[in-house]
């Protein structure tokens, strides 16, 4: 079993765009998505669920593109 992890990594715009494009291509083609985040390679299965979350608190707003799955 993998250890718990909660990491947030900031990327320069061009790297973020590249990752989004690869994700969109994988979703469109029905393929798994692979990404490395803070030194760990993550394999997102085709069965993953995608959602978009919006949060607002005071003057701060946030949009999160979320990808969730369980490892069976």
From TrEMBL:
Cross-referenced InterPro entries: Amphi-Trp_dom
Domain Amphi-Trp, chain residue ranges per copy: 8-71
NCBIfam families documented for this protein: amphi-Trp (TIGR04354)
Protein name, as recorded: Amphi-Trp domain-containing protein
Organism: Rheinheimera maricola
